[in-house]
User: What shape does this take?
Amino acid sequence: MHGTGQTIVVVEDDEVVRLLTVEALRNMGYVVHEAATGAEGARLLNLLGPVDLLLSDIGLPGGVSGKQLVDAARSMRPDLKVILITGYAQEVLEADLVAQKIALLRKPVLIDVLLRKVQDVIRAG
Assistant: This one.
């Protein structure tokens, strides 16, 4: 299954991971916007029209974490679908994320697992 032009915002500070993720999502037919920090991600979300999914690392530089980005984005877009990625199991409580309808992936994430999760979350709408 491929994307049909849905818009995804990817926020990831690791340039290699971000570029690979963006390329894979674009190859599947998604419209992808990218940012390296939470603040850049917030600016993008403020500028863009409808966004189907926010895919963000939790640990971001610059003082705005992925979770803070989600909270700010959801204040403007309460139905925004979100996938957070973390390398730190203890950083977040999974139950809290589930209650907020936020999907969680743990690093390292295989690209096919990531792409399948993106499709599942977007389809679940």
In short: Residues 7-123 form a domain with the Rossmann fold fold (CATH 3.40.50.2300).
